[in-house]
Structures are given as C-alpha cells and as structure tokens.
Task: structure prediction
Amino acid sequence: MATVVKEDLNFNNIVSRQFDRAAQYLKIHQALLSQIKACNNVYYFQFPVRFSDDHYEIFEGWRAEHSQHKKPVKGGTRFSELVSQDEIMALAALMTYKCAIVDVPFGGSKGGVRFNPKKYTAGQIERITRRFTAELIRKEYIGPGENVPGPDVGTGEREMAWMADTYDTFKPGGIDNLACVTGKPVSQGGIAGRREATGRGVQYGIREAFQYPDDLRALSLTPGLEGKTVVIQGFGNVGYYAAKFLSEEDGVKVIGIGEWDCVLTNPDGLDIEKLNDWRKVKGSIKDFPGAQTNPNPATIWDIPCDILIPAALENQITLENCDRIKCKVLAEAANGPTTPDAEQALHKRGIKIIPDIFLNAGGVTVSYFEWGKNLSHMRFGRLQKHLEEMKNQTLVRAIEGLIGKEIPLEQKKFLVRGPEEIDLVNSGLEETMVSAYQEMRQIHLSKAPKESMRTAAFIIAIQKVAQAYEQLGIFP
Ligand code: NAD
Result:
C-alpha cells in the first residue's frame, strides 16, 4: 500500500520553516532570531455591516503587524473567503522580509476580511471596506506614520480610494492623510505605474535572472527571454501584467494560462490583450477563441515550459503535484505558492526557484514611491521635466552642429523628452529589482550555493532586520 505523506500546509509554519533554514547560515543570537520571526501584534475583530433595514451581516477582519523595526509598517488587504489569522500573519512576515530585500524602509503588515467579494454588490463591498477601515482607525492600525495598507487579492484601486476617504473623514484636515494607504487611483493621490507594478517587477526580476550565461547553462537555457515559453497560474492583477509585459516587450510566448475554472493553452503563444478583453466581456477566460480550453484547472502543472509563474495564491505547488511540474525556472509571483517539501523536491530536480519575497516586491516598491509622493505633495517629475528637456534640446543642437546634419525628428523627440512620472517610477523599480537580484545571487553563490535561492533571499532579509534591531537596542 502506498504511504501518503502528510504535509504541514499551515502558511505561518511554512514561512517559519523558510526562515529557520536560512537562519542556520547566520551567527545571530537565538533571542534576536526569535524576536524577528515572531509576529509582534495581531488585531482580530468582528464587525456588523448593515445592507438594509432588516439585513445585516457580521464579518471577521484582521490586521497583523509583524515587525516595527522600521515604521510605518506596510502590507496589502485581502478580501477572500479563505482569509484566516495564520494566513494574514504569514503574509505580514513575508512583507517584513520583502521590504528588507528591496531596501524599502517599512516593517511588515497585512490585513484582510473573510468574505467572497464576487458574492456582493459594489455598494455592499464599499460598506464592508469603510467599516473595516473605521475599525482599523479606532485601534490605530492605519495611518501614514503607523500602518499603511495597500491592495492584495480581492482588492484594488477602488477599495484603496474608499479606505483613504474613510480615513480622511475620521481625521479631517490631516495634511498627510493620503499617505495612509497606497494603490489609490492616480486621480486620488495614487502614482502612475502602481497598478501594474507587481507584474512589472516580475518582468524585471525574470529578465535579470536570464542575464547570467553560467546560471542558465546549468538549466540548459540560453540567455535572454526572446522565444522562451511561459505558463502562468492566475490571470489577476499580477498574472495579467506579468503576461502582458513579458510577451509584448521581451518576446516570450505565453503558452498556458490557468484560472480557477479552466486552463487555456496555445503552443504559439496567447494574445494577452485579446484575452483580457474576452475576460472583461465574458467574466471568465474560458472558451477564448485563440486557445484550447481544458476545464480541469490542475492541468496547468502538466504543461512543459521554460518558466512557470504561479500568480494566484499560496500552497499551490505541494508534494502532491510537484512531480507533474516540467519547467526549468519557477518564478514565484504569488506569495507562498510553493510548500517547503515541494520546493526541496523541485530543487533536487535542478529547477531554479526565483522566490516570492524577491520577485513580487515590485508592488511594495512602487507603493513606497506613492507614499513618498503623498508626503511631498508633488507629482514626480514635475520640477525637473521641463529643465531636462531644455538641457537635452541644447545637447541635441550641439550634436547636430558637430555632425553637420539634423537628427531625424522621431529620434530627436525621444532624445529631448523629459521624464514623466511613469518613466521615473519604472526606472526606480527596475533599478531596485536588478540590484536586489544581484545581491541575492551573490549571497546565494557565496553563502548557500547548495540551497534554493529562497534561502539567500531570507539570509539577506534576516541580516538587515537583525541589524536594525541591534542598532535600535531594547527599550527601556
Ligand atoms: P487578484 O485577485 O487580482 O488575482 C488572483 C487571480 O488568481 C484571480 O484571477 C483568481 O481568479 C485566480 N485564482 C484564484 N484561485 C485560483 C486557482 N486555484 N487556480 C488558478 N487561478 C486562481 O490578486 P493579485 O493581486 O493578482 O495577487 C495574486 C498573488 O500575488 C497573491 O498571492 C498576492 O498576495 C500576490 N501579490 C500581489 C501584489 C499586488 O500588488 N496585487 C503584490 C505582491 C504580491
């Protein structure tokens, strides 16, 4: 009789195991390690929301603060019927480590409400969001200098605008109020590029990983992304933008996309924009004319590809299904998609893992830019755009004088153009992802070459957080 291996799927325990695996490579006092690992505080609350005179429902909400070694603490807001305290605590811990890896000066936090937004109207979701925010305000679990929520699964710009407005209603006249939440619409104090930032970061991170011939040779891959095959689980905010940018700008072929209700395949590559339009009209990616639809979502793991991008939820790749996976690189866009046991099995098979705490850090990086923008009360690029255009104009004229002919108009326009906010955001994001990857790769090779790259990412994070705690000392 075959033995069934039981895996611990508690997300909080999983993050702790990942932490412990890295900690053994560090000479840090056990007490300090325990302090870093622990979730500092969790606020659990129940709240009623009235939908009509005789109809109200009770909701459960959480906001966890994992570490205040830097303030404010930061992390997304999840609306899903799967939300639990363990999940929120685990996600808060990942936020701490993620921020440290990309040098974003925040501690980690996360929040959520247990309900399925698909079963509620926009008006009902607004009431839930506002009441949730009011509860956070009461206990000081939100505020520009304390705790700054952002979007996550089941929330987006709309919910962030409601949260910001609710905060402003309770704290009238607060000049920095807009910085109480990130991921807002640009017209409500958001920043250009935040909506697509996590997917953009995934693109930049994967692109950088495909720059090192020695690393790629070991995977039987050539450098560069052109023509590489990609499969993505989850066509939400992160999955959609990663698919779009990688296919439109780097020439990859997205040959498979999985959602909760089906898997689409096309060996020649899916047209991501057409698929997005289809989903908007039909409410599902199912039966997209440019692909074959398989109604079994689990078949996503059977598609051979160069890069597999899980971009849905945690605990998707487990001991039960990891043998089915046939990719060379597992690029974790979701938080916690791979269990530690599955990771070991994949690592043994030579599959390279680009870990979540690095790869999906684009969202919090651009959230940091948004927070800074809100506190400075000024759009990025507003002061320097025109000045740079004038300088570039002078330079172009000088070059034309030297070469004795005019530069073609299109090229001239490109050379002269001063930076818009989106250019500065994407450039800051790319620089962040590239340098974080290089640091992670260097630590991987020098400190833990036998481990997966996740251990290197955790080593960097633990070291940085430990240093902050050591410098802060212990009060009193
Ligand atoms: P989202 O809600 O926009 O998208 C998630 C998608 O996954 C949805 O389309 C959903 O239908 C799909 N999905 C759910 N269960 C599935 C299943 N079993 N199989 C296949 N598809 C499934 O959420 P998102 O913001 O794109 O977040 C996705 C992941 O990325 C999460 O793990 C989240 O924590 C992480 N993340 C998001 C951000 C961000 O800025 N939004 C930042 C960092 C990390």
Remarks:
- Residues 151-154, 198, 233-239, 258-260, 297, 311-313, 333-335, 360, 363 surround nicotinamide-adenine-dinucleotide (CB under 6 Å).
- The chain has a mean pLDDT of 97.
- The first strand starts at residue 41 and ends at 52.
